[in-house]
Predict the structure.
Amino acid sequence: MAQIKQALVPDIGDYHDVPVIELLVQVGDRVSKDQGLATLESDKATMEVPAPFAGTVRELKVKLGDAVSEGSVVALIEADGDAQAAAAEPAAAKAEPPPKSDAPAKTEPVAAKAEPAAAQPTARETHTPPVAFSADTVLPASVPYASPSVRVFARELGVDLAQVKGGERGGRIAKADVQAFVKAALAGAAGGSATGGGLNLIAWPKVDFAKFGEIERRPLSRINKLSGANLARNWAMIPHVTQFDEADITEMETFRKRLGEEQKEVKVTPLVFLIKAVVAALQQYPAFNASLDGDELVLKKYFHIGIAVDTPDGLVVPVIRNADQKGLLALSKELAEISVKAREKKLGPADMSGGCFSISSLGGIGGTAFTPIINAPEVAILGVSKAQTKPLWNGTEFIPRLLLPLSLSYDHRVIDGAAAARFTAFLARALTDLRRLLL
Ligand code: CAO
């Protein structure tokens, strides 16, 4: 007998109360295993909840705007065939809480739980609450009540929906509310210069580009839009200063090349040496391994390093966890794995959360220096450019040395210039003489 089982939100890392922004199926739809049922969107990533098995959707347990976490029931699905039924748990016998992560499906007695499919709203219907509805009481405060198109609109304008008061029934936020919020913000900024509040920005230039020549319009990727909004916020809100330095990596390179000859299992690039040197510097200067939380600095005792990876769809920052506990070869292997995962769009939110400090390496491409944008709530980021052989004065003569340019952007609210100069000097010394990493 076919059974109805729950499709649950799988392990989504440290994310909680993530809004459902899209329903991908309707009641009655046939779904294959791993087909997306709903799209969730946190401030950093978008993820689909996959169907844990093939079957027919009997009931949707979420609607647009609902906030879900790992283990939340998204749909009830009638599993296909006997094989599925046999694999499922006995329907009536168990009444356990939803499984945590590895088993995103749980058997439910058909008759007891499933309501007639016809009574359910279809996935693409607009959800107008049938009775008086207050977003404040039904949705957690952290999830503003707004449609996906309004969310996209707000994101494009850099508006935090949590600050917008919804004018529609139940506190639902309409596009007009977002527009009014922006107008008020601009007016406040214009009139607020006496108090110093607001960015006091003039409107974005509106240009008819086609008037000047042929053009083509290309939509931004989802990653471009998400990272763009984050970068704009971080650039506007964090007082950035960038400290530049150079590390003599002549000996490091000799050692790296030898490592490459001795073993062919993994490619060892300068980046893994940088990860080790950064960890040592974070241990030496804990304020760089911290986040601002109101009036407090949260100092982290763990060392999770974010690595900016360039993908065809835009920039993503997967995190290498516990980098202090890993050697150069293990780091190289993990770096290769996360780069492939990033470029194949297979990174989940868990892969991109919990970072303490980020490294953005453009060394394989070129350039002499740049000003990386801090990945909030981190307080510093290291940019790395291309190493070049240059003449260095050793006191009596110029000798050729391989110099690696370092660009450290830091949050000046947390770190002062002297600390930043010490941090990059420490990094440079450690990379010049790797034995220092053992101290
Ligand atoms: N100086 C000189 N050569 C360098 C170097 C440096 N600083 N860093 C790397 N290289 C060399 C490597 O040794 C490798 O050389 P070979 O192929 O001859 O061995 C080559 O450059 C390519 O390296 P890579 O880029 O494949 O590997 P990586 O470990 O240095 O970097 C990754 C991996 C994922 C970080 C990188 O591919 C990437 O995506 N970088 C872009 C990050 C980015 O976009 N940052 C910008 C953020 S702001 O918009």
In short: The pocket of oxidized coenzyme A is lined by residues 269-271, 307-310, 315, 335, 339, 360-364, 372, 384, 386-387, 404 (CB under 6 Å). The domain at 4-108 is CATH 2.40.50.100 (OB fold (Dihydrolipoamide Acetyltransferase, E2P)). The radius of gyration is 26 Å. The chain is about 25% helix and 25% strand.
